[in-house]
Amino acid sequence: MSFTASSITPPTLNQPPSPCSAADLAGADVAALLKRLSNSDYYCTELIAATLIPQASTSLVGQLLKLAQNSAKPLARRNALRVLGRFAERPAGEPAHDLVIRSSPAGVRDLDGINAGPALAGQLAHETDEDSLHEILWILDAYFYPLFNIQGYLESASANISNSDRLRFRCISAYARLMYARDKLNPHELAFLNASLRSDDFWVRAEAAFIFEQLRPEQVTKAEREYIYQALKQAWQTEQLLTPRQYMARAIDHFNGNSILSSQLRGECETQWLPNTLVHHDISVRSALPDVEALRFIKLMENERQAFFDLLGPEFTTPVANDPNDKITLMLFASKANYIEYMNAFVGYGAQAGGLYIERDGKLYTFLRTRAESTFTVEQLIQHEFGHYLQGRYVYQHLWSDAGYHTEPRGWADEGLAEYLGGLQFDANGRCCGTNRPEHVNSICGCADLCDLNGLICRREGYDQPGTFDYPNAWSFMHYLCTHRLDVARRLFRAMRNGQYRDEAFDAVAGVPLAQLQHEWHNTMTNWRNGGAVETMMPPTDSPSIITSIIEGLFRPRKPLNPDRLPSSDASTRIV
Ligand SMILES: [Zn+2]
């Protein structure tokens, strides 16, 4: 559980944001770039960092440090820190990295008495701008770890009620990493963590319990272990919120060498929030819904699976070797609040997503929602995540978390097909009768440039690396393939299933040059931009002909369920 730099929300843009392009910056000298940095928005700052990296020198790093420390403008300090962080993350041996990270006496002299690590650590005590504090903590925790002289700041900042929740959690998380680097914890640190178990901030309480859970036996004496155990039990007695309660339960279990308390808590929570289980073949739905409603979701997933098989062909009906998920459970919460609480407490991530399929558990987590809570309907969300389940079982060998799983970038295929399946619509007989993703079409029509296909198929950001994935274009390319080039789609997915897909050999695997596919795909999108209809090919089923239909550009979500009207029900399991 930790923040990364990419999880920080970009600051509010200057109004109006200054236009900024790499070409525009390329001709500017260092002085002009630094001047511009003081007023740059988030995106321009990143471009300036990229422009400055090859020009790194002792003088430049010194100027950036002075700007970061002395500027009266918070935005200038924050931007200079971001650039220093981008310098630091370059590989060792590059001047940008070495000049920021260097801590030798020679480095101190080179930087005119300034050295990045201690200088930034000193800035923590008086920096008042939260964005700048996050940047400093990012740099120090990532590139100067372990830096024990920031421990005092982390203690006071995580306990300071005037700090934001986000900063307090970041500080206690950085503290956790420092404690991990200690050979032994001292009495002061134990007392601080004990007090943190009763913090007013529930994530600080949870993280303090997490630190205790993660301690190595040699870090504390037998008497100190007993002190921690009693502190955890006392905190557990009075803790009211589910998330810290579960973290405390796990820590207590750790000391007891079992998982009794945490399993019990999870079981109680599921009994309360997901009392009913409906099982049909390999699909289970846990929810508070009556059977008739739960069955609707089972049918939806079965329809989608049939459409998936129809789309990719009969060879995809056999699971890939050693796939462990011959069953899937939909964990369908009645409200977003319950979902968030459950994910925070028991899964550890995904609380901010609309839903999540976790391959190693064979479970799909999501919640019933109203139009106001989510752009996507629960059906679309389930279809998207179930699309990941289908691909995990029938296309990709190994599991997401296995070594080598991400050797080839294939977010375009995994997310693209999940989005495509997420938009399928089914008639009363369960046959696919159309697709509907007008929000993606609108997004593409609203962009100045058409997407570069090579960039899309190489894209990792937002898939297996931090960032935001390009869902509209991944959907659009998959829609194009499925509608106009199903043969190519099948060849690509077949290569993935056989472990023969290579990003570098895309043309050979696809059987069509990438440039040609891009040309045809772009023509399709240009037609949309000119007001042309979005063509949809139904997956071929028992009909020999390919049916082409036209969908309307209007977004018509299905009627969401109203959780308030759901009848209460006793916990039960039924098989249909
Ligand atoms: Zn996805």
Task: Summarize the structure in words.
With 576 residues, the chain is of the alpha/beta class. The protein has helices spanning 22-26, 30-37, 42-52, 58-70, 74-88, 95-101, 105-110, 116-124, 130-143, 151-159, 165-181, 187-196, 202-214, 222-238, 242-256, 260-273, 291-312, 336-347, 378-394, 411-422, 438-445, 453-458, 471-484, 486-497, 506-510, 514-529; strands at residues 276-280, 283-287, 328-333, 355-358, 363-367, 424-426, 432-435, 534-537, 548-551, 572-575. It has 26 helices and 10 strands. The chain is globular, with a radius of gyration of 27 Å. Mean pLDDT is 87; it is low at 1-18, 104-113 and 542-571. The chain starts with 21 loop residues before the first helix and ends with a strand. The protein has 4 domains: 1-144, Serine Threonine Protein Phosphatase 5, Tetratricopeptide repeat (Alpha Horseshoe); 159-273; 274-391 and 566-576, Glutaredoxin; 406-560, Neutral Protease, domain 2 (Orthogonal Bundle), CATH 1.10.390. Zinc ion binds next to helix 19 and helix 20.
